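Dear Dr. H.,

I hope your travels went smoothly. While you were away I took the liberty of generating a structure for the chain from your last submission, since the lab meeting agenda had it listed for discussion. I wanted you to have the full record in hand beforehand rather than looking at slides cold. The sequence, exactly as received, is reproduced here:
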Amino acid sequence: MGAAITLGPQPHTPTLISLWIWLRSRSKLTHQANFTLRRIQTTPMKNTRDDFPKTVREQLAKRVGFICSRPECRTSTSGPNSTEGKATILGEAAHITAAAPGGPRHDKLLSNEQRSSIMNAIWLCSNCATLIDKDANRHPVELLRQWKKEAENAAERNLGKALSHHLPRSALVAIDVHYATIARTQERHEYSLVVNMSCRGSIAPEGTLQIIWPDFLPFRIVGIPERQAITKTTFNDEAYHSISVKTPSLLPDTPHQLLGKQTPIRISYHVDEWIYRDHIRKFSDDKEVLRYRLFLGDHSATEGGLSITALQNF
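The corresponding predicted structure, in token form, is as follows:
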């Protein structure tokens, strides 16, 4: 007899039904994987930064008149854009304590609401905002809070007043130069040069005050190394000395004494019988023998002079 013929499925050979089941299970797995991937792609990442909302940024900038809060800067941070209806903003709301862990001056004790509130914000130009974060040790929380307070106080004082950058430089700072008597005897008088400054505009930037005096007045400098500070020159066959003193940034309604009896930098001089007889008597009462000039940036802001009678009363 011949071999028997088997009509059923061979062992290990998938039937149509088993093949259909296998393909269906693969389809379900692929569908689930695609669904999970879509959820991952469409689910927003949780933001770990406590950024300032738009309302906080706008109010912060308005409270300082869109002026950078760093005293040495005071740059305007807002102006017109070439596109009508738009403005160019060069400032930003910087965090006093960092917006996220690991950032500069981060305070873990603050809540999320406190960290993103206006109390934790200071308005700065883009350069100064970068500076305070790049060198956080030099810009601690206390210093930034002081900057913010001073900037807001200045903005309050300047409401309705002309800003410094709209005024000519000669109108920014008023300078009063005179002498104060230190000691006096019949043979010799000791004097101290006094320089008082005040700001006429909103804020006067840092500058340099140059003082020029004749060689016969023996000036003594305290607070600056004389070799670095004093230079010599000749004018109309007369020998003169000059000194340059750095002047600080000035706020309005805050007089500053640059030179005086008790200031860190002091300039004193004396007049005796020999100086009076051989030099002072040769000058007319109105002839200027001491000149001063204030530079703000690279430009002269104001200048003046004193006669010999305004420098002594020997």
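Two observations you may find useful: The longest strand covers residues 173-184. Residues 4-10, 166-170 have pLDDT under 50 and may be disordered.

With kind regards,
E. W.
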